[in-house]
Specification:
The protein is globular, with a radius of gyration of 19 Å. With about 250 residues, it is α/β, with parallel strands linked by helices. It is built from eight helices and eleven strands.
């Protein structure tokens, strides 16, 4: 079986630039169908751009990209996506259920089916928000809203879930339960989590990609220190998997 079939994403020598300024340089990355991957790097390092290339929202200047054996942006690609900033009008009168139902949109003039509504119920139940299905979005906390947006991202039963800084609007006390939720999802989908918080994600994910325009490392958490040193220009001794801290050399 070829890698094109085994991996949900294949990127070869992918480069992207905006206004002649390089954002991604010769990135080679494979994402396995069962992988829980964190993309780590400084702000402006191209992490969000990489996700948008996979989604087909940004076209690469050069290189080859395959997503589920097809081109990025193919409507049949089973991808869920939570952007870093969700465009949402707090004064718009929409409740939790209808927000998630919008993730089942089939096109103009096509109505939602009973199956669509059942999928919404299942998604809300999984993220622990079913009891609040009639509540207005404007009345939710930041963590509750994020759970609703996650439900909307998974309501189409994706095989790849892309999350761009999902912990940014969540209270630290809720972050642990959020990671537990992601652990449930990864039983049936690949997850790519973008973050700049090395210490937090290293205790939860199984692999790390170190990105700062170039991809310096992609592999296990335990062996990622060298790649992280190149990305952050900071001597990191190692990341202790399973413990909520990282060990730093003198710097």
């Amino acid at each position: 079986m070829s890698n094109m079939v085994c991996n949900v994403v294949e990127m070869e020598n992918v480069s992207v630039s905006f206004d002649r300024q390089s954002v991604l340089q010769d990135v080679n990355l494979s994402i396995d169908k069962d992988e829980f991957l964190a993309i780590i790097g400084p702000n402006g390092g191209g992490k969000s751009t990489l996700l948008k290339v996979i989604l087909g929202l940004i076209k690469a200047d050069q290189g080859r990209i395959s997503v589920f054996g097809k081109k990025p942006g193919d409507p049949s690609n089973p991808i869920g996506y939570l952007p870093q900033y969700v465009s949402f009008d707090p004064d718009f009168p929409i409740n939790v259920f209808d927000t998630v139902l919008s993730g089942r949109y089939h096109g103009l003039f096509k109505n939602y089916s009973d199956d669509d509504r059942e999928k919404v119920v299942n998604a809300l139940e999984e993220v622990g928000m079913l009891k609040m299905r009639h509540r207005q979005m404007s009345r939710l906390s930041g963590g509750q809203k994020q759970r609703v947006f996650i439900a909307r991202a998974i309501v189409r039963d994706p095989k790849l879930l892309l999350l761009d800084e999902p912990m940014a609007s969540i209270d630290p006390k809720m972050q642990e339960s959020f990671y537990e939720l992601l652990a449930q999802f990864r039983k049936r989908m690949a997850i790519v989590l973008v973050s700049h918080d090395v210490g937090a994600v290293s205790t939860h994910v199984e692999s790390i990609a170190c990105l700062n325009q170039k991809l310096y490392y992609h592999g296990s958490v335990e062996e990622s220190a060298e790649g992280l040193e190149k990305v952050y220009e900071c001597p990191i001794g190692y990341i202790s998997h399973g413990l909520p801290h990282r060990i730093l050399k003198d710097h």
